[in-house]
From TrEMBL:
This is EamA-like transporter family protein. One of its GO terms (cellular component) is plasma membrane. InterPro entries: YdcZ. The keyword Transmembrane applies. The chain crosses the membrane at residues 36-55, 67-87, 93-113, 125-142. It comes from the Bacteria.
Length: 154
């Protein structure tokens, strides 16, 4: 089961990169907000069909959760909106590395303080070093992208 989860997560990462690139290109013609809206409308229709045939949960339970948990919905919209804005400007890999760094930074903070009922895992030198390496990777990727764009223009 662990291998299947790793494989499905890997496929999810592949689809995220493809979606980022396609949405970034699409947004140049249709607009950033319009592209984001179409993505969510399509996702809503698709998931409605999936729920209809395979759903086993209780959709109305969303009315019973604490209000702060509903913030995840808006965070998802912001996430996609920022991706659609960033890809045409800094490229797919720089966008994805930046996303990963953001996830790691907040993940480390959430683990350190045990927010949202997570395990408490203190920040240590290995985790801090990982962030430094990721930031270094972003720097070199971004600089390489910038240089490539300048060469293509001139």
């Amino acid at each position: 089961m662990g291998f299947l989860m790793i494989l499905s997560t890997l496929i999810g990462g592949l689809t995220l990169s493809a979606q980022s690139a396609i949405n970034g290109t699409f947004s140049r013609k249709a607009g950033t907000i319009e592209t984001t809206l179409l993505t969510f409308l399509t996702g809503t229709l698709f998931l409605s069909i999936v729920i209809l045939f395979f759903g086993k949960g209780n959709v109305l339970a969303i009315l019973e959760v604490p209000r702060w948990q509903l913030s995840a919905v808006f965070l998802g919209v912001l996430f996609l909106l920022f991706i659609v804005m960033a890809v045409p400007r800094i490229g797919v890999i720089a966008t994805n590395i930046t996303i990963i760094i953001g996830q790691l930074v907040l993940g480390i903070v959430i683990d350190h303080f045990g927010w949202f009922n997570s395990l408490v895992i203190p920040i240590d030198a290995k985790r801090a070093a990982a962030l430094v390496f990721m930031a270094s990777a972003l720097y070199f990727i971004y600089k390489g992208n910038k240089r490539s764009m300048e060469q293509a223009q001139g």
